[in-house]
Amino acid sequence: MSRISFTTAAMPARKRIALVAHDHCKAFLLDWAERQRERLARHHLLATGTTGLLLGKRLEQPVESMISGPLGGDQQLGARIAERQVDILVFFWDPFEPQPHDPDVKALLRVAAVWNIPVACNESSADYLLGSALLEQAHEYRIPDYASYLASRQ
Predict the structure, then answer these.
(1) pLDDT category of residue 137 using cuts at 50, 70 and 90
(2) Is 13-139 a domain of CATH 3.40.50.1380?
(3) What is this structure's pTM?
């Protein structure tokens, strides 16, 4: 089995922030986003279907919406992460309710870990992320060296 090598990439100052919430957590995410409205307004927001519609109305700002999570929205965001089009994932998931699309949720969290993007799974960690000095500045971070990986396969 080949070992993945790494390289660095630059995360932009204006972040692309994906916002996701399970049904029982949507109200928490909406309330949190409203409290963080000013910070979020300086960044590009993406969300899964219903969450995106609700956030756009509550925040009165554009939110790029995927389809609903269980219908493939989680996978759409995962693809965006792998394409380096998402910089931060805020995912309020419900630890008390099994989800019919748990494999998709696990895949989304896995791809976020692979591509080394910050992930917040609750209000406290989301507050810490948005309160970080790195939020509003460009910085370098480690990512898989996909070009090297492809070259090793030839």
Answers:
(1) very high
(2) yes
(3) 0.92
